[in-house]
Each structure stands twice: as structure tokens, then as C-alpha cells.
Specification:
The structure holds two protein chains of two kinds. By secondary structure, chain A is of the alpha+beta class. Chain A contains 14 helices and 20 strands. In chain A, the strands form four sheets. In chain A, strands 1, 8, 9, 10, 11, 12, 13, 14, 15, 16, 17 and 18 form a twelve-stranded mixed beta sheet that branches. A four-stranded antiparallel beta sheet of chain A has the order 4-5-7-6, covered by helices on one side. Chain A is globular, with a radius of gyration of 23 Å. The two termini of chain A are about 40 Å apart. Helix content of chain B is about 65%, strand content about 5%. Chain B is elongated. The two termini of chain B are about 30 Å apart. The chains are: A alpha+beta, B mainly alpha.
Chain lengths: ~550, ~350
């Protein structure tokens, strides 16, 4: 998943005191959340443009953060601040599944009397329909389900899109769902929490339903959605607290304006026209926000890593010393200060902090002279390097920085800046032969497989749509990632093995150049009661738990 | 009828007679000399011409200035570095980040130092710590190269097409006029953006011509192309009028070939218009280039141009307004100087215009 395709975060803000201030009204928000709160009439927000409003298709935080209260899956994340928010709890499932000893079979039972917002019952077979619909729609999430029996292969559902997926069996009368995998996957429960697994009623057309809201299972429904302009969420009339592990939400209505310009979005909140600015406050306005609106501003660092990918497959970066030179030529603090206004934390790890597998790496430091020397030793000095990056700031400025640093250490860098719309598919195409690239990753779900397997496993390199544009391919590490994939239990020993994978790839083989975990902002109007602010590991700002003064 | 008296009736001999009274004999004055006489009395136009030359000279000296005074290149970032001012080390871009868990906003580049830092950061730094004054001069070079280059190419092709269309009526005129119409049908900036964006990604590699993406030739050629009808149409109109004059008839009667007529008869009569258009089209091209570069379809980063500098500065308009204002002023001065001079040149070269002014 690329920069804009964010799903989850690691919370860094302290858990705030429970309970909301006075001025609230109406009833309690329900028992599912970790805090109380009182309902209020309307939450006005300024939001970024969701890519879609159909759970089979959307893949951006703008959609996910908004609709995690609308459509739900068998399991989902606990609505809690900090690391507790990474904990999976049963949503539509009665309880967490029974998993067979070999880790290949998952058995779920749905809660009784579940209903969609249109009043129709939620059936076990809807789950199979949901996954099959993903494939029929060529959902961006279908890759996650490749290990379900009957999906892959020449006769698999992914190819034929006919019949049913043999690895999913359901019984509507007993409300049971059985999922069989071809091989155990340590991250499969997280995959079931993804939006692509969120229930839609059987018979929902296998076409984009963004503007024809699909019946919901969560506490809210999408009342209206006008792409690029606005949306309205209201309470689900048939919710009846059917998911006790989920808060029922404080605002009765959420009215959103879609404004993609960060300055305009910021101004909406400053003028109290909106209560929340989804966009990160622009660098230019950050000093003002920090001084004048300090109490309304929250800064968080989520689970992301910004890194420069170096093409390990072709010169000059098929040379270890050349890659080490680039690591030493990059000054993370300078990038964070100058280009990101301070909104970031330096890193040398690929895995972001907050994971139990994270072990901080401090293996190199910014040293241009040493970097130049390494380039000379590598015998690659003077070679031309095609540097690729998006053409919008701050990514553009970061890419320019990389190109300039490469020139400083002895390469002839040639800059290629591309539109965001085509950038990742261009560098993901082997024909481009990009040598050094701007890239980043925000987690899909909180598991190291989403980082190392998806991004740096050499066995997953493809000719096009390559998520590993640096063509990182270290056979011994690939083998270890594959071995760790089947580990379903997170133990200290497993965590240490993941940490070693991180160190091997970043230090021993210097495959990439991680430099920053980017921070972002939540900005609120003075109508909002900030004592209710809840930032979840996965769900970002939990608007359902918000309250007003 | 000719007369020898000294009445004020205008006759062919009047001027000579008056001159004889004053100076004895009269010398023939070429139209160029007359134009120059008019132009040199137009101090405003000459002042702005001087300003334009000043800008050109300053931009031409970008290299020596960067090497010997600013000591940095136009694309050299200085993030995380400091410079000395009055013995104090000042960060080029303010530091930010998390200090003991508290966030400190940073990234504000140092403002204009004028000459207080020994010629460094005269106009401040941008968010990558690049010296704005160095980028301004190099950016000016690029903007002027594109502006003048596209002006020359545009004038050349517009003139050729106008001559062919104007001289040969019938099918050639029809074909060329429709070509002008076709380009004219598109809003000029939108067409330039579309072409500039497409070409700036992959460059141009057709018909044995290879232009790399990022080359200055791309905005130069794009601007030349989209502005051809804006020059070609009025020139064609003038040629249509000239074609009917007696001297053209006389040339034809003498058996002059069309090429000879175009080169020897029409072209000299168009020279004044071409000169005026050239001055004005350069100003227009510089503006178009700035607009294209601002939108990412002109000069490609990291190469500076005044348009890209404004684009880079817009994100810092509150905390570092000089980033957008300074290149903006450079564009205003350059375009203003060319426009005012162009107007002066037109007044000097077009006697009818002078007569109108005298009334």
C-alpha cells in the first residue's frame, strides 16, 4: 500500500482522562468503548477525498477512518487509545475464532440476530459473497486472500471468478463460517479485519456502490456521498447495539465537506466553520497553530516509514558500498526540519516504532565525507543515477534533496518527478529502471509481514505493480520471512527473529535507506472537548468517541 | 502642381525648400534613422530598455556570482547547515522536531540578508536551504532563454507561414489559416499545459528528434508552437495589404520570383512590425513560461525558473513570503521593461502612431 493508502497507526499520545466535560446532552454513548462520552447532535468535519465509499474498493485513510463505524467484519480493532487499539476483538463474530492446530482452519460463529441497516438479517453466506465480490470487482485487496483454499491456481476463483471459493464454507442456519487456508498465515486475523472483509449483503452489485450506499452493519450509515464534495453519516436505525465490542458513537450526525487543499481546510477550522481538519496542518501554518491554537492541536506519529528505495538489481546500487554510501549521505534530521517542518522522527529501522518486534537500529550517521569515500571504494563514482519522486511537495522536495545528495557524493543524478497518480505504478514497473526512489509505507495492519513480506521479500518481486521497487532480494532473508509467515504466535523469540530481519536488511545488506517516521496532526475547533480525544493505533482519531463542550 | 513660392502648401519641394532655408541642403534620412531619432527622445522606453539589459546582464553573471560570492550552486541544498553573520552561526533553515517529547515547529528558511552575510543569502534561503539570490539569477537565465528562444522560433515560423499564406492566396492561405484557427481554438495556456506536461514526463523522441525530459527545449518549443497564430495572423493581414501595393506589382512585372518578392519586397516592409512583435512576444513568453513552470509543465526541477520559484514559495507564503515575492518582482520588472520598450519601439517605427500621438 502506498503513501495515500493508509489503514492504521501506532498511537503515541497518552490516554486521556475518561469522561467528557459538561455541556453534553442526551444519552450515554454505549458500553463498547474504553471511555464514556455523551451524544451530541452534529459533528462538522473537513475531510480529504475518499477514493471510494465501497468497502471492496476503498484503500485510503480518508475512507477507512470515516467508515470504520459503518461497515464491519468478523473481527475488528478495539476502540482504545495507544497500543491497546491494535488488539483484535470479535465484531460480527460471537467470539474470536477457533483455529486448528495446524493453523490452517478458522471457525467463526456469527452473533445472533444481526441486521443490516435496511433491516435484513446478516447471513453467514454474506461473508463468502463479500470475498467473492472483491475478486469480481478486482478489488485492490484481493492479494490478501490468496492463501484461502480455492483462490489461487489455474482453476482458482481469482482466475475463473465462477462458482464459489472452496475454502470458505458457511451455514446460514447455524451462523457458522469456516475458512481453510492452504498454508498457515500469522497475519490472517488482521486480514479479516481489513475493509475488504467487511460484510455486504449477498446480491450487492459487483460494481462500485460509492454513491449508492451499501447497507451497513455498524452504528452509522452513509446517508449521502457526493464525490469530491460532501458526505453525511447518520445513525443506523437497525443497529440496536448489535456489536457490543464497538462503541455506538457520540455524534448523531457527521456532516463532512471534502476539501483537499490543506490551507483551506485549516482555515475552515480556524474560522469555526468545521470542528475537525483531517489534513495535516501545512508547515506554513504550524507555528501559528502551535501558538494560537495549542489546545486544539494534536500531533501523532503513526506506523509509517519514509525511505529511499535503491535498485539493488542494477548498477550502481547492486554494490553494497554504494548503498551504504547513500545511507550516510542522508541527514534525516535535516529532511524532517527543513521539508516536513519538524513533523517526523528520524529512523534507521524499516519497521516503525510501536511494534513489539521493533528494536532500534543506530548503525550509521550522516557523514558526507565518509559517503564520498565509500562511493570511491565502490568504483561507482561518476555513474548516472535516475532519481524518481512525486512532483508535489513535500515528496518533491525530499526527492530533490536525495538527487542533490547523490550529486554531492559523486554521482550524476537525473531527476524525474511524476504525478502522484502515476508515480507508484511507474516505479513499480521494471521497464522504468529507476535507480533511486522516494517511497513510503503506511501499515495495512499491525504485523511485520505487512512490511517485510509485502515490501522487501525478493520472492514477491514482479515485473509490474512491484511493491519492492528497489528489487531487494536477499535469499537468506526471504527464507526467514517465509518461515516467520507461518508463525501464528507472537513470542519474544519470534519478535527477535523479526528484529533480525530488519537489521539484516537495513544494516548487513544496506538494502534501503529509511529516514523518517512521519508525524501528522489532528486539528479541532474550540467547540470540541479535547478531553475526549482518542487516538487509536489503527483507527486514527476515533471520531465516534469525540464530544463537544 | 509644383511651385517655387514659400507658401505653406504641402508640395514635394516644400521640405527641400525649408531645409535649404535652414541648412542649405537636405540629406535623405532612412526610416530606421528616423525611428531611432524618435526612440531616443522617448526616455521612458529607453529607461526600461536599460532595465531589461540590466536584468539580462545580472542573469548572465549568475555563474561568477554563485562561485565567488554566494559560494553555492543553484541546486545545492544546505539543510542542517549554518552560515556566519556578524560572527554568529545562524541556521539556514530553522530546526524543528521533537525535543524531549515536545514538538517544535521548524523548517522556516532564513530571510533576506542583503549584504550582511558577505553576499550569501542576499534574498534569503528556500525550504531546502538553497540560496534564493543564486536561484533567482539562474532562474532568470532559464526564463530569458525560454522567453527569447521561443520568441525567435515563434517569430521565424510565424513569419514564414504568414508570408506564404499572405502572398499565395488560395489553398496555401486556406491551409495555413485553418492551422492558425486550430491552434487558436484552444485556450493558449491549457494547450501549453497539456503539451508541456506530456512532454516533460518522457521527453520527445520522434522523427529523428530526441529531446530529453527536463530539457529547456521542451517549454521553449511548446510556447513557440502555441503562440504562432498570435503573431502569424496579424502579419498575414499586413502581407495581404502589402501584396496589393504598386511596388509588388512592379516587382512581378519585372519577373521577380515569389521567393525574391517575399525576401526583397515584403520582408523589409514587415521589419518594423516584426521588431515590435518580437519585443512584445518575449514578454508574453516569459509570462507563459512562468505560468507553465508554476504549474509544473515548464522548466523542470531542480532547475530554477521564476515560475518554479514562485511555486516553491507558495507553501511558505506566511512564514517566508520573500520566496514567492522576489521572483514575482523579477517577472514584473522584466515583463514591464519589455512591454514599455515594445510600446516605445512601436511608436518609433510606426509614423502613423506618432501622428496620432501628436494630435
Amino acid at each position: 500500500m502506498k503513501a495515500v493508502c493508509l489503514l492504521a497507526l501506532v498511537g503515541v499520545l497518552p490516554l486521556l482522562a475518561a469522561g467528557c466535560g459538561g455541556g453534553g446532552k442526551k444519552s450515554s454513548s454505549g458500553s463498547g468503548g474504553t471511555r464514556g462520552g455523551e451524544t451530541y447532535a452534529q459533528l462538522n468535519v473537513v475531510w480529504d477525498a475518499p477514493d471510494y465509499m465501497d468497502p471492496a474498493l476503498y484503500y485510503t485513510v480518508a475512507a477507512y477512518q470515516l467508515t470504520n463505524y459503518v461497515w464491519t467484519g468478523l473481527v475488528g480493532y478495539k476502540h482504545a487509545s495507544g497500543p491497546a487499539g491494535a488488539e483484535l476483538v470479535p465484531y460480527l463474530a460471537e467470539s474470536m475464532p477457533k483455529i486448528s492446530a495446524d493453523g490452517k482452519t478458522y471457525n467463526f460463529t456469527l452473533r445472533p440476530n444481526l441486521k443490516y441497516s435496511n433491516g435484513k438479517p446478516v447471513k453467514a453466506s454474506d461473508f463468502r459473497y463479500t470475498i467473492e465480490r472483491d475478486f469480481k470487482m478486482d478489488s485492490p485487496g484481493v492479494g490478501f486472500y490468496s492463501d484461502i483454499a480455492g483462490v489461487s491456481g489455474a482453476n482458482g476463483f481469482a482466475t475463473t471468478k465462477k462458482g464459489h471459493i472452496s475454502g470458505i464454507t458457511t451455514n446460514d442456519a447455524n451462523r457458522t463460517i469456516q475458512i481453510k487456508l492452504t498454508s498457515p498465515r500469522g497475519d490472517f486475523l488482521y486480514i479479516l479485519a481489513l475493509e475488504f472483509s467487511h460484510f455486504v449483503p449477498a446480491g450487492t452489485p459487483a460494481t462500485d456502490q460509492s454513491t449508492h450506499p451499501i447497507p451497513a452493519t455498524g452504528p452509522y450509515i452513509v446517508k449521502s456521498y457526493v464525490p469530491s464534495r460532501s458526505f453525511v453519516l447518520v445513525r443506523n436505525p437497525n443497529y440496536n447495539d448489535q456489536i457490543p465490542t464497538m462503541p455506538k458513537g457520540n455524534p448523531d450526525k457527521v456532516v463532512g465537506k471534502i476539501i483537499t487543499d490543506p490551507v483551506a481546510a485549516y482555515q475552515q477550522v480556524v474560522s469555526n466553520s468545521s470542528d475537525y481538519d483531517f489534513q495535516t496542518v501545512p508547515n506554513d501554518r504550524l507555528p501559528e497553530a502551535q501558538s494560537k491554537y495549542k489546545d486544539q492541536l494534536r500531533i501523532y506519529t503513526n506506523a509509517n516509514t519514509y525511505y529511499f528505495a535503491l535498485n539493488n538489481a542494477i548498477p550502481p546500487f547492486n554494490n553494497l558500498k554504494a548503498r551504504q554510501a547513500v545511507q550516510q549521505a542522508i541527514d534525516p534530521s535535516a529532511i524532517i526540519s527543513g521539508i516536513y517542518g519538524g513533523l517526523g522522527r528520524p529512523t534507521e529501522n524499516f519497521l516503525p516504532p510501536g511494534y513489539p518486534q521493533y528494536q532500534k537500529i543506530s548503525a550509521w550517521k550522516f557523514d558526507l565525507a565518509a559517503a564520498k569515500k565509500l562511493v570511491q571504494q565502490s568504483g561507482t563514482a561518476g555513474q548516472t543515477v535516475d532519481v524518481y519522486g512525486p512532483n508535489e511537495d513535500p515528496s518533491k522536495a525530499t526527492t530533490e534533496y536525495l538527487a542533490n545528495q547523490l550529486s554531492k557524493i559523486g554521482y550524476k543524478s537525473k531527476l524525474h518527478l511524476l504525478s502522484h497518480q502515476v508515480y507508484f505504478q511507474t516505479i513499480g514497473n521494471q521497464a522504468t529502471k529507476a535507480q533511486a526512489m522516494f517511497t513510503n509505507w503506511f501499515q495495512d495492519y499491525p504485523h511485520p509481514l505487512d512490511w517485510f513480506d509485502v515490501l522487501l521479500n525478493g520472492d514477491r518481486i514482479t515485473k509490474t505493480h512491484n511493491n519492492n521497487p528497489g528489487n531487494v532480494n536477499v535469499p537468506s532473508v526471504n527464507k526467514e520471512i517465509d518461515a516467520l509467515k507461518s508463525e501464528t504466535q507472537i513470542t519474544p523469540e519470534v519478535n527477535n527473529r523479526w528484529a533480525k530481519v530488519d537489521k539484516d536488511l537495513m544494516v548487513t545488506y544496506a538494502t534501503t535507506v529509511p529516514y523518517m517516521n512521519r508525524s501528522q496532526t489532528d486539528f479541532f475547533s474550540n467547540r470540541m472537548d479535547m478531553s475526549c480525544y482518542t487516538f487509536s493505533v489503527v483507527l486514527y482519531w476515533d471520531w465516534g468517541l469525540s464530544c463537544q463542550k | 502642381m509644383a511651385t517655387t513660392d514659400t507658401s505653406t502648401d504641402f508640395t514635394l519641394d516644400t521640405a527641400a525648400a525649408l531645409a535649404a532655408d535652414e541648412h542649405g541642403t537636405i540629406e535623405g534620412k532612412s526610416p530606421w534613422l528616423l525611428a531611432w531619432r524618435r526612440l531616443r527622445r522617448n526616455y521612458v522606453a529607453l529607461s526600461f530598455l536599460a532595465l531589461f539589459f540590466l536584468i539580462v546582464i545580472a542573469c548572465a553573471l549568475a555563474g561568477p556570482y554563485a562561485r565567488h560570492i554566494a559560494k553555492t550552486g543553484p541546486n545545492d541544498n544546505h539543510l542542517g547547515e549554518t552560515f556566519a553573520r556578524n560572527g554568529k552561526q545562524i541556521p539556514i533553515v530553522s530546526k524543528g522536531g521533537f525535543v524531549n517529547g515536545t514538538f517544535v515547529a521548524g523548517g522556516i528558511p532564513v530571510g533576506p540578508q542583503l549584504w550582511h552575510a558577505g553576499g550569501r543569502y542576499v534574498f534569503g534561503a528556500d525550504n531546502q536551504g538553497r540560496d534564493v539570490s543564486v536561484r533567482l539569477l539562474y532562474g532568470g537565465q532559464n526564463s530569458l532563454k525560454v522567453g527569447i528562444g521561443s520568441g525567435i522560433i515563434c517569430m521565424f515560423f510565424a513569419l514564414i507561414l504568414a508570408l506564404v499564406a499572405g502572398y499565395f492566396s488560395s489553398w496555401a492561405d486556406w491551409l495555413i489559416s485553418r492551422f492558425f484557427d486550430l491552434i487558436w481554438a484552444f485556450p493558449v495556456l491549457l494547450l501549453a499545459i497539456a503539451l508541456g506536461t506530456a512532454l516533460s514526463i518522457n521527453g520527445f523522441h520522434h522523427f529523428g528528434i530526441s529531446i530529453e525530459s527536463g530539457s529547456l527545449w521542451i517549454p521553449t518549443l511548446v510556447i513557440s508552437y502555441v503562440l504562432i497564430p498570435y503573431v502569424g495572423r496579424p502579419l498575414r493581414g499586413q502581407i495581404l495589404s502589402l501584396r496589393e501595393k504598386e511596388f509588388i506589382e512592379a516587382a512581378k512585372a519585372q519577373g521577380a520570383s515569389p521567393v525574391r518578392i517575399m525576401a526583397s519586397e515584403l520582408l523589409p516592409n514587415l521589419a518594423s512590425s516584426v521588431l515590435v512583435f518580437f519585443a512584445l512576444i518575449i514578454a508574453s513568453n516569459i509570462l507563459t513560461e512562468a505560468g507553465l513552470s508554476f504549474l509544473g509543465a515548464g522548466v523542470q526541477p531542480p532547475s530554477p525558473s521564476w515560475g518554479t520559484m514562485i511555486a516553491d514559495g507558495q507553501d511558505r507564503i506566511v512564514t517566508a513570503p520573500w520566496l514567492a515575492i522576489i521572483p514575482g518582482i523579477a517577472i514584473v520588472l522584466t515583463v514591464l521593461s519589455l512591454n514599455v520598450f515594445g510600446d516605445g519601439l512601436r511608436d518609433a517605427l510606426d509614423p502613423r502612431s506618432k501622428i496620432r500621438m501628436e494630435r
